[in-house]
Amino acid sequence: MRKITASRALALALPSVTAMTVTTAAAALTSAALPSQVHAADAWPNHVIKFVVPFTAGGANDLVARAAADAVSKRLGQAVVIENRPGAGGVVGADYVAKSKPDGYTFLVAPSAR
């Protein structure tokens, strides 16, 4: 099996989504603790990937996360679960991701501040 970086895996998974989705996915990648390189022995992804949306279901962030999750799931052949954790203007979800296991399977999908 050949080596692949996690960022390359996501780039391969997202060619058919909109620019807004790609921007959101890129923001999610920068906030997640990804392994710098995945080796064949690690076979990333080998279990469910979780996208955490720190806002209620049905909002713009949730819809973008679901579109990105669908594209990633199809491309990588691994299930992607959306978990909404609203509260405190996004702090509850961000805190959850910050305290999650740093294995590269939990991503925060949130808008970027300008």
Number of beta strands? 3
Order of helices and strands: HHEHEHE
Mean pLDDT: 78
CATH homologous superfamily placement:
Bordetella uptake gene, domain 1
Total count of domains: 1
Q: Would you give an account of this structure?
A:
By secondary structure, this protein is α/β, with parallel strands linked by helices. It has 4 helices and 3 strands; from the N terminus they run ααβαβαβ. The chain has a 3-stranded parallel β-sheet, sandwiched between helices. Helix 1 crosses helix 3. The radius of gyration is 13 Å and the shape is globular.
Question: What does this entry show, briefly?
Answer:
This protein is of the alpha/beta class and 114 residues long.
Task: Note the topology.
Elements lengths: L5 H8 L5 H13 L17 E5 L6 H17 L3 E5 L6 H8 L7 E3 L6
Parallel strand pairs: 1-2, 1-3
List keywords for this structure.
D-Maltodextrin-Binding Protein, domain 2; 40% helix; 11% strand; single chain; 3-stranded parallel β-sheet; alpha/beta; 114 residues
